[in-house]
Design a protein that fits this description.
It comes from Actinoallomurus liliacearum. Belongs to the ABC transporter superfamily. Keywords: ATP-binding, Nucleotide-binding, Transport. GO terms for molecular function: ATP binding. The chain has about 300 residues and is of the alpha/beta class. It has two domains: about 220 residues, P-loop containing nucleotide triphosphate hydrolases (Rossmann fold, 3-Layer(aba) Sandwich), CATH 3.40.50.300; about 60 residues, Alpha-Beta Plaits. Helix content is about 35%, strand content about 25%. It has a six-stranded mixed sheet with strand order 5-6-7-3-8-9, with helices on both faces. The chain has a four-stranded antiparallel sheet with strand order 11-12-10-13, covered by helices on one side. The radius of gyration is 24 Å and the shape is elongated. About 35% of the residues are buried. The C terminus is likely disordered. The structure holds adenosine-5'-triphosphate.
Length: about 300
C-alpha cells in the first residue's frame, strides 16, 4: 500500500444504544479528492474522529499511510485535518495560533507564514482569532492542516460558513492539492458541493457505505439511457418510436421521454418517419440526484427527509 493512502476497514462503534458505525470500510487513494457524503447522523464525523485517533472503534481499524494515527511519529507531517474550526483560543492572533501549533509539533516558524499566504489570511493574521468569521476560521483551520506539508488531508465539512468566493477558492485548493498527489477526504452533507471537485465519492448512511465509486460512473448509472424529446406532435413521435421497438412515453403536450437508445438513434427514427421535433437532449443526472436516490431510505431523522423535500 502507498504511504499516502487512508484505509478504513470494518469500523464498528456504538454510543450506548446508538450504532454510529456499522462496518464502515473504504480507501482514499493518493491524487484523488474523495467526497464522504451522507445525511446527518450517518457516521461521517465519527469515522473521521476514529481515523484521527480521537475516538476508539469497538471493532475494525483505520490506517494512515499504513499506520494507526497514534503510531505516526510527527502526525502533522503525514496528515492534515480540519475537524472543528471553532476549536481555537480566541485571544490568540491567527498567526500565534499557528506558531503555537508548529512549536508543539517541533516545527520552526518557517511554514507558518507560507500557510497563512496559502489560505489568503495575510491581512487578518495579526488579529485575534476570536473575532474571525466562520469562513476565516475555516481558512485558519486549513492553514493549520497544511503546516506540516502532509500527503493526506482530511476535512470535515470544510465549506461550512464559507461565502461563494470562499467556496470557489476552496474547490480550487482541494483540486490543486490532489493534483500534487495528495490523498484528500472531504465530508459534506450536501452532495452538490462536491460536484466538479470529487473524483470519487463514498456515500454513507446509518454507519455503513451505500456506494463507493467514481463520480463519473455513479452519474452515468443514475442517468440511465433517457432522452427527452421536444415536439409539436408527441403522439406521432411516440407511435414512430414504438414501431421501431423503442420505449417512449408522452410526458406532456410537447415532450416525449425515450428510454434505452441514444439520442442519435431517436433523431434517425423521427427523421425517417417525418415527425417534426425541435430538441433532443440526453438526460444527465446530477450528483445530487444520485445522492437522493441512494439515501432516500437512510435518513436517521424524518426531519432530514422533509428538509430535502423542501429544497427540491
Ligand atoms: N459522543 C457521542 N455520544 C453519543 N452519540 C453520538 C456521539 N457521537 C456521535 N453520536 C451518534 O452517532 C451517530 C453518528 O454521528 P456522526 O456525528 O458521526 O454523524 P455525521 O454523519 O457526522 O452527522 P452530521 O452530518 O450531523 O455531523 C449519530 O446517531 C450521533 O447521534
Amino acid at each position: 500500500m502507498s504511504d499516502a493512502t487512508i484505509e478504513v476497514s470494518g469500523l464498528r462503534k456504538r454510543f450506548g444504544p446508538t450504532v454510529a458505525l456499522d462496518g464502515m470500510t473504504f480507501t482514499v487513494t493518493p491524487g484523488t479528492v474523495t467526497g464522504f457524503v451522507g445525511p446527518n447522523g450517518a457516521g461521517k464525523s465519527t469515522t473521521i474522529r476514529v481515523i484521527l485517533g480521537l475516538d476508539a472503534p469497538d471493532e475494525g481499524h483505520a490506517l494512515i499511510g499504513g499506520r494507526p494515527y497514534a503510531q505516526l511519529p510527527h502526525p502533522l507531517h503525514h496528515v492534515g485535518a480540519l475537524v472543528d474550526a471553532a476549536a481555537l483560543q480566541p485571544s490568540r492572533t491567527g498567526r500565534n495560533h499557528l506558531l503555537w501549533l508548529a512549536h508543539s509539533q517541533g516545527m520552526s516558524a518557517g511554514p507558518v507564514d507560507a500557510a497563512i499566504e496559502l489560505v489568503g489570511l495575510g491581512s487578518a493574521a495579526r488579529r485575534k482569532a476570536g473575532g474571525y468569521s466562520l469562513g476565516m476560521r475555516q481558512r485558519l483551520g486549513i492553514a493549520a492542516a497544511m503546516l506540516g506539508a502532509p500527503r493526506m488531508i482530511i476535512m470535515d465539512e470544510p465549506f461550512n460558513g464559507m461565502d461563494p468566493e470562499g467556496i470557489i477558492w476552496m474547490r480550487g485548493l482541494l483540486r490543486s492539492l490532489a493534483a500534487e498527489g495528495r490523498a484528500i477526504l472531504v465530508s459534506s452533507h450536501l452532495m452538490g458541493e462536491l460536484q466538479g471537485i470529487a473524483d470519487h465519492v463514498v456515500v454513507v448512511g446509518r454507519g455503513r457505505v451505500l456506494a463507493d465509486a467514481r463520480v463519473e460512473d455513479l452519474v452515468a448509472r443514475a442517468s440511465g439511457d433517457q432522452v427527452r424529446l421536444r415536439t409539436s406532435a408527441p403522439a406521432d413521435a411516440a407511435a414512430a418510436l414504438h414501431r421501431s421497438a423503442t420505449a417512449a412515453t408522452v410526458t406532456d403536450a410537447h415532450t416525449v421521454t425515450v428510454s434505452g437508445v441514444p439520442a442519435q438513434r431517436v433523431v434517425e427514427i423521427l427523421s425517417q418517419a417525418g415527425v417534426p421535433f425541435s430538441e433532443v437532449t440526453t438526460h444527465r443526472a446530477t450528483l445530487e440526484d444520485v445522492y437522493l436516490q441512494l439515501t432516500s431510505s437512510e435518513t436517521e431523522y424524518q426531519a432530514g427527509t422533509l428538509h430535502r423535500e423542501a429544497r427540491r
